[in-house]
Amino acid sequence: MAAKSLTVVISQSQGKNPSKRQLEEELAAALMLEPSIDVSLVPHLYDLKADHSGSLFLKSIRGHLLVLAWMYPRAGRWTLDRLGVRGQAGLSELEELEEDEPEAPEEPGGIGSVDVPDRNIYCLDLGQESDPAIFLDEIHRISEELAVETVDLMKWIEGSPQQEQLERYLHPERILAGGDGNGNGAAEPTRRRWYPVIDYDRCTNCMECIDFCLFGVYGVDSLERILVEEQDNCKKGCPACSRVCPENAIVFPGHKEPAIAGALGDVGALKIDLSKLFGGVESIDLAVRERDVELVRDGRDAVGVSMGMPKRQADRDPDNRDQFDDLFDDLDTLNP
Fold first, then answer.
1. Domain check: are 98 and 148 in the same one?
2. What is the pLDDT of residue 37?
């Protein structure tokens, strides 16, 4: 049976930073000359809607996939998962492992993704290195490891690219409105978005996020699993639900704090000391303040700690308590 092909996708940066564009161009130009690799470009993953042609293209890929994006690998993987692009997490030698990670990490303790096909997905952070050779060497290593067999030089959303079409993708500032999607006029536009991405390797379905968020962002699916249901209800710049998640399973790829943006690495459900990560109770206080700010902006009343305060996990060992458990219990007693 023929080996599965490797498709490399470059997810472009949201802005027009010349150094970022140069890195993207150099990578695309080099990969187009590789006979064993298919390469395509799409807008920034985080900005793609489900019906965008870039999303449809990503979902059409059946073989191994490697995505170069301007976000941490964990954020990239779970953003793809939200778009319905799933696979086994491929291990890249460029990923930085946590200093305190055990040699034999525990199996993931989250509820996991669903409908995961038997193919690898690799996510590389374009912000990690500025030298394209480092990424190209890693792509070659992965390609050889997978024993890739490909027949096309390059795959595009609308077939083989013409030079004019390639130029529009590499130089988005030249794009005009009113394209027809067939190489004439503009590429399909995107706009910057802000919404939470769930890491299901860590998520335990405790539902604390749906209790805490008062903007209707979260819901549950037919399997009663938490999901981001109305992502455009999320308030731009607000990461409050991430701060109250007991497992650090909620990622905002564009946030300035690395821990919230997914910097902990795609290494499964690590045991995280939240008091060290976010400053213990201070993170809860900050989340409440952030939520109140957005409520007031919506013309609603601030609620403080009177609604949706996290109870941490209900099935936690009652004999393994700390001062924060006592604090949360006292708050629950005061606010029935």
1. yes
2. 86
